[in-house]
Amino acid sequence: MFEVTSNRQLAEGVFGLSIKAPQIARHHHAGQFCIIRAAQHCERVPLSIADKDVHAGTITVVVQAVGHSTQEIAGVQAGEFLLDVVGPLGNPTNVGKPARGAFVGGGVGVAAGYLMLQALKGAGAEVVAIIGFRTRDLIIYEDKFRRVSDELIVTTDDGSYGYHGLVTEPLEQQLQEGAQPDLVITVGPVVMMAAVAEVTRPYAIKTIASLNPIMVDGTGMCGACRVTVGGQTKFTCVDGPEFDAHQVDFRELSERLKMYKTNESRADEAGAHHCQVEPAYWRLDERNG
Q: Is residue 273 pLDDT above 70, yes or no?
């Protein structure tokens, strides 16, 4: 059993939980994740570790309550307990020694980038972060990103805050103006990561995508998290979660994520969110052939 020491709502349906897990906090590195199960009847949910406090023995995860199991996790209050927290899993982010690094994130995936940015700064890189959300009310971690970024660009799909448009637009503008990073890390929706890869591909900029496919055991045994990278089958939980974004088959990954869409859908048609930007993302892929 793992005690939740705090549970704070960050945006509508998005919660940040600090969890007492001293062993995980001690051994975790940027880019790694954990798998959480709230109770016996719940699914095991992979979540990036968004922050940690080794002295306090805690880790922080950000969860979006969209289905039964994530709602159960999000509903655990301070002083209550989660049944399972397994980690750290996956491989740490390999930032190398870039002179300039960039992080491009969207939605709750933004939370995973905070420690990645710290790793880039620790390697001596100048860091630019571009983070995008559907609307102002869904923005998370802006203050944290400002503290560790040399430049921060916040975008919203509806123009309610910051840059009005997709995260790929300011990224492409910077590349066209010659402000090219040595490394780009992207975390977020599949279509967003695919689009980032298509923007950086013509410039041959090393681009890493942190993937979060369907996952069950987190040990490479079940094969549920398999992805195709460079024509080869990889298991995200043990080979990733980060891969060369220019080699990832994002179309296949997107289709696999839809396998249980009917089963998972709990919202009625009126309340469900329909992605308005997916067509634009895939057009980038077609543009680059």
A: no
pLDDT range class, residue 272, cuts 50, 70, 90: very low
CA 74 to CA 286: how far, in whole Å? 38
Q: Which two tokens stand for residue 97?
A: 């020694």
CA distances to 16, 99, 222, 238, 243 from 226, rounded to whole Å, are 28, 33, 9, 10, 12
pLDDT at 277 over 60: no
Whether pLDDT at 29 is above 60: yes
Distance separating alpha carbons of residues 95 and 29, to the nearest angstrom: 12
What is the edge-to-edge ordering of all strands in the sheet holding 163-164?
Answer: 163-164, 151-156, 126-133, 100-106, 183-187, 206-210, 242-244
- The pTM (predicted TM-score) of the whole model is 0.86
The pLDDT tens digits for 43-66 are 889 999 999 999 999 999 999 998
The torsion angle over the Cα atoms of residues 204, 33, 235 and 65, rounded to 10 degrees, is: -100
Domains of the chain, first to last: 2-89 (2.40.30.10), 100-287 (3.40.50.80)
pLDDT of residue 275 exceeding 50, the answer is no
